[in-house]
Amino acid sequence: MTLDTAYLRGSVAGVYSVLHHASCPENIVFHFITTHSHGVKLTRAVTTTFPYLNFHIYYFNTNLVKGKISSSIRRALDQPLNYARMFLADLLPAGVRRIIYFDSDLIVVDDVINLWSINLGGHVLGAPEYCHANFTSYFTSKFWSNPVFTASFKGRPKDPCYFNTGVMVIDLWKWREGKYTEKLENWMRIQKRYRIYELGSLPPFLLVFGGDVEGMEHRWNQHGLGGDNLEGLCRALHPGPVSLLHWSGKGKPWLRIDSKKPCPLDSLWAPYDLFRYPSLFSDS
User: Fold this and answer.
1) Cα distance between residue 165 and residue 203, in whole Å
2) Cα three-residue angle 54-283-36, rounded to 5 degrees
3) Is 245:268 a contact under the CB 8 Å cutoff?
4) What residues are paired with 98 via a beta bridge?
5) Residue-wise pLDDT tens digits, 233-280
6) Which residues are CB-neighbours of 137 under 8 A, at least 6 positions away?
7) Beta-strand (E) ranges in 62-141?
8) Do the record's keywords include Transferase (predicted)?
9) Is residue 263 within 8 Å of 251, Cβ to Cβ?
10) Residue 16, CB half-sphere, CA atoms under 13 Å: how many?
């Protein structure tokens, strides 16, 4: 998970939910990615909240994406730390093979071992796929009118489908072997020149991995609970069982609760909110 001041409250709720529902919480190791600007305060906040947590902090060099980020439809998506998920294979130790990447606006209501143990079937990445979504809408007409760009999907095991990058199981060894960070960065460079998408760090993942993802049960990413990109929109759960609730989109549950304008499903997030009242960064 990434750690920053704006989303720390969500990250802590996510960590607590993972621990609360785990059959063996002592076996879980957390890897947090942050920047140097708030690293000390964020480390202290995690240590104070979870004194016995097995975790490591890694510092993301934002210069890695300086000049490569294109403006998107939401300002929050343009933050450098939002792109840190592209560099996990470089940030984490070589001995770490499999990881679960979680966004900071979700909670788990199932034993995370059930997600960890899925069979990736030889794929680098596993995530719930949503093939009913209009995949073409994630890219501009400049992309679809260029046969060189569209040819990137040829030869994939299956047709590309949308997947949300807030929940991913990743084989870091295969990632390094295939140099996938370089592939993602290459699409960012193309985006700067041709403007082939509008939505932050998600489209490069769709371009590199679309059609080559190990699909997982939708229960592991009930996403869009933040209303996607519309302010004030309350969403219901997708049909089917639920193992993870994800407030992707503009509406974050802690902000809506504080403003006394919560959505109904925000009540499911509230029990994991350990930072509702304390002043996190006071020096007292």
Assistant:
1) 10
2) 55
3) yes
4) 171
5) 899 998 999 999 999 988 999 999 999 999 999 999 999 999 875 544
6) none
7) 98-102, 106-108, 125-130
8) yes
9) yes
10) 18
